[in-house]
């Protein structure tokens, strides 16, 4: 997201007059007239709060010449190196900070087979405007401990469609100073001849690719050419120190997907006889053959059909070796992607049906070059016989607290399984990535002889959650309760142990949490993506500190937003994502619409006065003194407010983070004082007071004295110390931040892709007289970029049928919805809903309603939020796809079950909001 413009306010001799006149005002007078020195630093030890995984792992890369040297790449969480002695992963890109947060999107990674200390990564997050920065090639000569970067003249999309194909970055195994990189968006094939320092386009490479997932996508996320997708060398055609002559390249082009050079890149040609109609997702050379896995889509979500092929290098003869060929339309409803050949036994290979969501992903293994296959489970609907065990006891949330009907099972074997690798030194070890974790085994060969493969998560240390909120209650068994994207949230009684996720109610993302300051056993959370078929809603309440939950009452259609629980736990204010602000006069009780607070305002509760709530919207703070029933505007001109909190123990004291700095109010938001040392801030929180002090420690992610970092103040802002360093920055972290009220110096920090980190100080001050609670601001500094949280990702399969649509105008806006069945199998099917803005005005949201007539049940939906009660289904927009320009479309997709028949529902209504 582009840097937001810095907004300033005049200070004031006239503040008192404007207040007396009843006008809205904010005190921006900067206390202290002399600039402060740069903030001091303090040593901190940083660790992850263990969740283990939580996101898509599109690549696992084994070094072919050094045993146990293994890397993993993620789409929003950086890159990792395997630590064999601890069976865990070490993060490698935590040094990437606010200005280069896009480095945490790793599109490809290559490990040097000659000088094994060297590793390279192609990094960048998005190809569209969500990412303001160009991509880069990172290079390391110490296995990722330190890095140098070469900025590219174009963007790189580590979190874009097609990110599971690859690897796009490859090193010549004979002349390791030569690297190739296959790019996206029509930028073609690039080459470096100086170990990644400089790069140039291979101008004679004939095809930049042409496959686009959805050219009409109004969000411009699916509109990019997925480009050149993998590079593979035939090592046997070169000698040590000399260029490898045979180089094969995969291209996202359904008719021309494999190219080669037989003269070290001097010239290129389309490989004759290749299959058409599919994209070669991955390619690998072994035992005199080129193997490819193909799909009709780019993934990682979509893919309706595919095949597996091998080409004999000496003759150019192609042979289809698909476990289930694409021509078998009754049994092939997926594409192939994951591919690995056993380096110890070149006739042994494994492939994945990455896009089979029902009943599960598919993994096959062949020991005769693809002539015959065995799979991880036998399936003939509704019967399923597993050839594996899956022990998730160390990561219990991986079953998502689901109860599945046969042939589905929980935990799932996986989905989005594009990364699969056999250890080149140990034929028994194999790892594969899913949309949530890495599973692995050390006895994969058991499948060959009719045995059982023992799978377990191999994910410790790899944290890939987007953290949406954090609370640290002052008492109770759990010092930390978190809300995260996609996998709900967690209650940690031990930061070093992986807990189960929230349940009853379960919702995919927990956007906001709060506890009652004077009765911390009372906790409330709100989110979106609830499993509503059993009556659950998007709000959960707990009276035992989050150990057990039940569904609270909910305004119709309410989801997401922020929630506040008053000091004694008797009133709740919920600012929903789209419906407005509501209050409840009991814990878990029904809600009534509040007045005076704008829709989507952030809400907070005073930590002392049980009748006082606050709201913040568009630079203005609002106050309620009657339990959230009505709000009145107070201070304004506070910039773009990222977050604000009321401090425990002091009525009316608020701290506020915005793009113009860090502010404090001691009069319930009537006026604020800006800390002059701060130029921008994204989050603020409080922790246990320093020894000898009564005021709580304050923590913030902010730019102070010109440096972006994590800061602590023990003296109510009179002075600050920076508590992170250049090696611990975690991209665009800090929207969620809180201190620990039980442990001085401990701070919890939420990241956007690297999970929850916590820091402990190595410096405990001696007791000293308590500081005044009045702030003492210092000199101001320049503003810093404020990128947005990574948007959600959705599947968009291609349609096969097009039933009826029904427009429904509202307030001068209108939309239509079309229900489509894309793929079917016994007892289940995949579908899509296409929402189109048929009006002349842009929408801010949409709602689709229909009813099934044959007992169909939607089991999973992406690109929208589903509510199904009996036969009645309602689908509403996600936050990122509600705004449709005239003619624009949104494409939520889903999986569903049926019993005996599957008629298309009618009518289908669409309401534009």
Structural account:
With 913 residues, this protein is mostly beta strands. Mean pLDDT is 90; it is low at 1-36 and 769-810. The radius of gyration is 28 Å and the shape is globular. It has 1 helix and 68 strands. The protein has a 5-stranded mixed β-sheet, with no helix packed on it. Strands 29-33-32-31-30 form a 5-stranded mixed β-sheet, with no helix packed on it. Strands 60, 61, 63, 66 and 67 form a 5-stranded antiparallel β-sheet that branches. 1% of the residues lie in helices and 36% in strands.
Q: What portion of the residues fall into strands of 2 or more residues? A: 35-45%
Gross geometry = globular
Structural class: mainly beta
- Number-wise, the strands total 68
Give unreliable regions as ranges.
1-36, 769-810
**Rg over alpha carbons:** 28 Å
Describe the strand arrangement of the main beta sheet, using strand numbers: 1-56-55-54-53
Distance between the termini: 25 Å
Whole-number mean pLDDT = 90
Supply the number of helical segments: 1
**Proportion of residues in helical segments:** under 10%
């Amino acid at each position: 997201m582009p840097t937001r413009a810095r907004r300033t306010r005049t200070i004031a001799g006239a503040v008192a007059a404007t207040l007396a006149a009843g006008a809205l005002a904010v005190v921006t007078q900067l206390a202290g007239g002399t600039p402060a020195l740069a903030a001091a630093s303090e040593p901190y030890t940083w660790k992850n709060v263990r969740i283990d995984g939580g996101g898509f792992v599109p690549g696992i890369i084994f070094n072919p010449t050094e045993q146990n040297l293994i890397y993993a790449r993620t789409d929003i969480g950086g890159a990792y190196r395997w630590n064999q002695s601890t069976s865990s992963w070490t993060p490698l890109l935590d040094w990437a900070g606010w200005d280069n947060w896009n480095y945490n999107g790793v599109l490809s990674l290559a490990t040097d087979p000659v000088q094994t200390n060297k590793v390279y990564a192609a990094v960048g997050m998005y190809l569209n405007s969500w990412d303001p920065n160009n991509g880069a090639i990172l290079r390391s000569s110490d296995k990722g401990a330190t890095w140098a970067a070469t900025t590219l003249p174009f963007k790189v999309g580590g979190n874009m469609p097609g990110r599971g194909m690859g690897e796009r970055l490859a090193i010549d195994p004979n002349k390791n100073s030569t690297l190739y990189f296959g790019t996206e968006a029509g930028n073609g094939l690039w080459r470096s001849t100086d170990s990644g320092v400089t790069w140039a386009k291979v101008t004679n490479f004939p095809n930049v690719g042409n496959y686009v997932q959805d050219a009409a996508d109004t969000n411009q996320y699916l509109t990019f050419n997925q480009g050149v997708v993998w590079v593979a060398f035939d090592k046997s055609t070169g000698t040590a120190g000399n260029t490898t002559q045979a180089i094969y390249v995969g291209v996202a082009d359904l008719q021309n997907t494999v190219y080669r050079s037989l003269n070290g890149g001097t010239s290129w040609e389309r490989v004759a006889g290749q299959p058409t109609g599919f994209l070669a997702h991955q390619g690998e050379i072994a035992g005199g053959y080129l193997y490819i896995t193909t799909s009709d889509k780019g993934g990682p979500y979509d893919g309706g059909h595919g095949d597996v092929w091998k080409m004999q290098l000496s003759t150019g003869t192609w042979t289809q070796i698909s476990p289930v060929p694409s021509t078998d339309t009754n049994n092939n409803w997926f594409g192939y992607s994951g591919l690995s050949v056993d380096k110890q036994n070149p006739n042994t290979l494994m492939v994945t049906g990455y896009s089979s969501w029902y009943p599960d992903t598919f993994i096959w293994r062949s020991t005769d070059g693809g002539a015959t296959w065995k799979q991880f489970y036998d399936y003939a609907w509704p019967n399923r016989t597993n050839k594996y065990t899956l022990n998730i006891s160390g990561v219990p949330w991986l079953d998502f607290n689901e109860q599945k009907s046969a042939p589905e099972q929980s935990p799932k074997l996986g989905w989005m399984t594009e990364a699969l690798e056999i250890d080149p030194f140990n034929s028994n070890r194999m790892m594969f990535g899913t949309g949530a974790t890495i599973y692995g085994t050390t006895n994969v060969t058991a499948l060959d002889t009719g045995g059982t493969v023992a799978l377990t998560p191999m994910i410790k240390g790899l944290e890939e959650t987007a953290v949406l909120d954090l609370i640290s209650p002052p008492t109770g068994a759990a010092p930390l309760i978190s809300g995260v994207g996609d996998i709900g949230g967690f209650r940690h009684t031990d930061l070093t142990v992986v807990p189960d996720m929230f349940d009853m109610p379960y919702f995919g993302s927990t956007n906001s949490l709060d506890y009652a300051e004077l009765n911390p056993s009372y906790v409330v959370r709100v989110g979106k993506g609830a499993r509503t078929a059993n009556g659950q809603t998007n709000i959960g309440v707990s009276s035992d500190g989050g150990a057990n939950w039940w569904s609270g009452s909910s305004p119709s259609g309410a989801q997401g937003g922020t929630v506040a629980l008053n000091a004694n736990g008797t009133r709740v204010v919920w600012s929903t994502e789209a419906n407005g602000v509501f209050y409840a006069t009991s814990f878990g009780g029904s809600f009534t619409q509040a007045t005076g607070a704008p829709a989507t305002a952030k809400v907070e509760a005073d930590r002392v006065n049980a009748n006082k709530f606050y709201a913040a919207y568009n630079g203005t703070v609002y106050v309620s003194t009657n339990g959230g029933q009505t709000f009145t505007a107070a201070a304004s001109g506070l910039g773009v407010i990222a977050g604000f909190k009321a401090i425990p123990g002091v009525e009316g004291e608020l701290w506020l983070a915005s793009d113009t700095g860090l502010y404090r109010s001691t009069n319930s938001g009537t006026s604020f004082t800006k800390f002059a040392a701060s130029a921008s801030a994204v989050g603020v929180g409080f922790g246990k007071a320093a020894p000898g002090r009564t005021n709580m420690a304050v923590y913030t992610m902010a730019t102070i004295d010109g440096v972006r970092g994590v800061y602590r103040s023990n003296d109510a802002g009179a002075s600050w110390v920076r508590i992170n360093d250049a090696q611990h920055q975690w991209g665009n972290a800090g929207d969620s931040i809180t201190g620990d009220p039980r442990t001085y110096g401990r701070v919890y920090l939420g990241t956007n892709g690297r999970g929850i980190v916590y820091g402990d100080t190595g410096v405990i001050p001696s007791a000293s007289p308590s500081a005044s609670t009045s702030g003492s601001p210092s000199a101001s500094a320049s503003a810093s970029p404020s990128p947005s949280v990574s948007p959600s990702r959705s599947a968009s399969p291609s349609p096969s049928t097009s039933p009826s649509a029904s427009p429904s105008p509202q307030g001068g806006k209108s939309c239509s919805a079309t229900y489509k069945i894309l793929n079917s199998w016994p007892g289940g099917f995949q579908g899509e809903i296409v929402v189109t803005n048929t009006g002349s005005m842009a929408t801010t949201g949409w709602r689709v309603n229909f009813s099934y007539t044959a007992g169909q049940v939607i089991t999973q939906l992406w690109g929208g939020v589903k509510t199904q009660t009996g036969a009645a289904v309602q689908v509403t927009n996600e936050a990122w796809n509600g705004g449709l320009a005239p003619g624009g479309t949104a494409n939520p997709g889903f999986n569903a079950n049926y019993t005996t028949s599957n008629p298309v529902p009618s009518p289908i209504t669409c309401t534009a909001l």
